[in-house]
Specification:
Aspartate Aminotransferase, domain 1, 17 strands, binds pyridoxal-5'-phosphate
Length: 467
């Protein structure tokens, strides 16, 4: 084993070959060296895995190094086509931003802005003023504040309202949300002590009541965004919890997570607590993500009673959690669309994908399938009814009826087809089920359809591999 590895030439000796001399003429030495190191690392593992038997010639290694250098010039964060059918796909960046956001970003990204400047008075303003009025209008809250994400929102709220004191949480709500958000850890990091009440499946008002004491800083309710409990279960709803909190003169923080602005019913979706409804029921602070059901950029929104929001605005931690102008511009443009629900349904891209008409999805699937069949006679392409999920840890267990294009190519594995689609430019991300690749038009933007057809047809005809 080690003998084979030792046959890999040294970096120094390779750099002295003619093949590398040309590369060194074109690019800084340090870049060439780091690309070559990557190539040699890759080779080492290929040899170890038995994928390669011998180390290639210097010319071949120079060619691989050139490819690695080209790859280093490509942006790391790239656009991909989401054909998984999961609208809030966490790995693909959760909500795709509405078209209106592009214009807003265009306007403010390159030049200067009034980010922290009061244009009326000609003096320093606050970045937190920009979305506040819109958020208050849309949620009925007395105050609003935005931070980097919902995790930050919870940290800030707990830090301000309960640091050094106790936070009472139901055992059924000590949840973990993808990407390492765990309620007990977040509360601990905010400098509060967690007091668990109730049991995993059942928590009653008397459990909270019994835990209230002089050291209680706040009550925290956490929405079970990404799982459901059924069977012998009980939880205390916001209204009753608010009653307990307020009787003891303590605030109730509700980590709502998903951030649904209107009532779910008006969007034709299954019940899910709304921001407005939660405030109305008595929550003093409600926190949620900007990039889940709200369909905007990554952000954490905090709404609630004016005097509490005012306290949060003065908390020194806010400086570490603050948002930049791009986030503010994107969030503001998204929020404006929510002023008219009808507009939001069609213009907030993530929401439009969630509520998409099934019949239209079927027609789109048929159209894409026809185009692919025309170009790839060797492939087996069918349109089938299927189900998908909303994603982003929202609406667990809710299945959206959808239509998919099911693709098989005789003699080629579904994994190979999937990986070729993923490896292209732009990458097309589908789902493998059984021995087929599934593409769901639900999450493909209308302007992306042609590119998707182009790319997938290339893969199906085998042209992509030969490049
Ligand atoms: C999603 C979610 C979070 C984390 O929000 P981020 O914006 O991803 O930081 C926290 N709590 C709940 C209940 C959530 O659903």
């Amino acid at each position: 084993m080690n003998d084979t590895r030792r046959r890999i030439p040294s970096v120094e000796s390779l750099l002295q070959t003619d093949a590398f001399a040309r590369l060194l003429d074109e690019r800084p030495r340090s870049l060439v060296v780091s690309a070559l190191r990557r190539v040699l690392d890759g080779l080492r593992s290929e040899l170890a895995d038995g994928e390669a038997k011998v180390a290639p010639e210097a010319t071949e290694l120079a060619e691989r190094t050139r490819q690695a250098l080209d790859a280093m010039d490509e942006p790391s964060l790239r656009r991909v086509i989401n054909a998984t059918g999961i609208p809030l796909h966490t790995n693909l960046g959760r909500a795709p931003l509405p078209g209106a956001v592009r214009e807003a970003l265009n306007d403010v990204s390159v030049g200067y802005t009034n980010l922290e400047y009061d244009l009326e008075r000609g003096r320093r303003g606050s970045r937190y003023d920009h979305c506040a009025d819109l958020l208050m209008e849309l949620t009925g809250a007395g105050g609003a504040l935005i931070v980097n994400n919902n995790a930050a929102a919870v940290v800030l709220a707990v830090d301000e309202l309960a640091s050094g004191r106790e936070v009472i949480v139901s055992r059924g709500e000590l949840v973990e949300i993808g990407g390492s958000f765990r309620v007990p850890d977040i509360v601990a990091k905010s400098g509060a002590r967690i007091i668990e009440v109730g049991t995993t499946n059942r928590t009653h008002a008397r459990d909270y009541e019994g835990a209230m004491g002089p050291d209680t800083g706040a009550l925290l309710k956490v929405h079970r965004s990404n799982f459901r409990q059924s069977g012998f279960v009980a939880e205390v709803d916001i209204a009753e919890l608010a009653e307990i909190a307020h009787r003891h003169d303590r605030p109730l923080i509700y980590d709502l997570g998903s951030g649904l602005l209107p009532e779910a019913e008006s969007l034709g979706l299954p019940w899910e607590p709304s921001v407005r409804g939660s405030l109305k029921a008595g929550a003093d602070i409600v926190t949620f993500s900007g990039d889940k059901l709200l369909g905007g950029p990554q952000a954490g929104v905090i709404v609630g009673r004016a005097e509490l929001i005012e306290r949060l605005r003065k908390n020194p931690l806010l400086r570490a959690l603050r948002v930049g102008k791009l986030t503010i511009a994107a969030l503001e443009a998204t929020l404006r669309l929510w002023r008219a629900e009808g507009l939001a349904r069609s213009e907030v891209t993530g929401m439009a994908m969630i509520v998409a008409d099934t019949q239209l999805l079927r027609e789109r699937a048929e159209r894409v399938a026809d185009a692919l069949r025309d170009r790839s006679p060797g492939a087996e392409i069918e349109v089938r009814q299927d189900v998908t999920e909303i994603g982003g840890g929202s609406y667990p267990g809710v299945e959206l009826e959808t239509w998919v294009i099911r693709i098989k190519v005789p003699g080629r594995s579904e994994r190979e087809i999937e990986s070729a689609c993923r490896g292209g430019d732009p990458p097309v991300i589908g789902r493998v089920r059984g021995d087929a690749l599934l593409l769901d038009p639900r999450t493909v933007l209308s302007g992306e359809e042609e590119v998707l057809i182009e790319r997938v047809a290339e893969v199906l005809s085998g042209d992509a591999e030969r490049r």
